[in-house]
Design goal:
Length: 277
């Protein structure tokens, strides 16, 4: 008996289908390979509340939190004893991990002194509501310092000039913690972070003259060059260019005269300075 070619093709297709089904069944029925064991979490130290720079960390200021995975930030504290009794160099927000670089050494204590970078100085000056920019000079803000000095007894020589630029305020009103609401506060003392040379200029200006603080944008670090201003420069009035002086010398609406004759009679017509005849 002769078997047709189409029959063999049908048999082959059926066998292929059965084989594919068998392979799929075996694949599905196999036990899944166990996943790699998850890395156990580790306990780290975080802030239990917002903490200002200079504050001494107490046990009630911190919490222990589970940190999943193996990617642990370098220098992170994992035990309460590593941070309790140490001062904060920078402010820390609630639930923020406590890293080694944010903390001073235990023997350094707390307060404003630990927040002063090496080579810098903190100088406090007395201010009133006007000098303190209506209470908007708060820790972390940036200011320029203007000094007004009268050399000798001649008041016309009184000069105001910017002596310090882009100076950071460390403290205001003898309080180091900034209000969370950001409301302006009336201040009587402002402490500025300056270099030793700037400390000399600031102290001299506050002693021999009067200082004024100019609040500036925290992101604006550009310094400007000024020559200062004297009283006589304010009273002299604005300088005029030659073009303005020439225009001021001419009448705004000069008079014009037109001469006419009619029947031998002479007539003069005048226009201007009134807008008509």
């Amino acid at each position: 008996m002769k078997i047709s070619r189409s029959w063999w093709m049908l048999v082959g297709a059926t066998a292929s289908g059965l084989l594919a089904g068998y392979v799929a069944l075996v694949y599905v029925s196999e036990e899944p390979a166990p996943l790699e064991a998850a890395t156990p979490s580790r306990t780290i130290v975080v802030a239990a509340r917002d903490l200002p720079a200079g504050a001494m960390v107490r046990r009630e200021d911190i919490e222990m939190l589970d940190w999943p995975g193996s990617a642990i930030p370098e220098g992170i504290a994992m035990e309460a004893g590593e941070v309790v009794g140490r001062g904060l160099i920078v402010e820390v927000r609630k639930n923020e991990p406590l890293l080694a670089w944010k903390l001073a050494m235990k023997e350094a204590g707390g307060g404003l002194s630990i927040t002063i970078p090496e080579g810098m100085r903190a100088v406090s000056v007395e201010v009133d509501e006007v000098v303190g920019v209506a209470g908007f000079v708060l820790p972390g803000t940036r200011v320029d310092v203007l000094a007004t000095v009268m050399p000798g007894t001649d008041r016309t020589q009184t000069t105001t000039r910017i002596i310090l630029q882009n100076v950071r305020a460390l403290a205001a009103d003898q309080r180091y913690q900034q209000e969370i609401e950001g409301e302006p506060q009336y201040v009587t003392v402002v402490t500025l972070l300056v270099t030793p040379t700037e400390a000399e200029a600031l102290t001299l200006a506050a002693t021999e003259g009067r200082i004024q603080l100019a609040l500036r944008n925290t992101l604006d670090g550009e310094e400007v060059e000024t020559r200062g201003r004297r009283i006589n420069s304010l009273l002299a009035g604005p300088a005029r260019s030659p073009a303005r002086a020439s225009a001021a010398a001419r009448p705004a609406n000069p008079e014009q005269v037109i001469e006419s004759y009619e029947g031998g009679q002479r007539t003069l017509l005048k226009f201007g300075r009134g807008g008509g005849r």
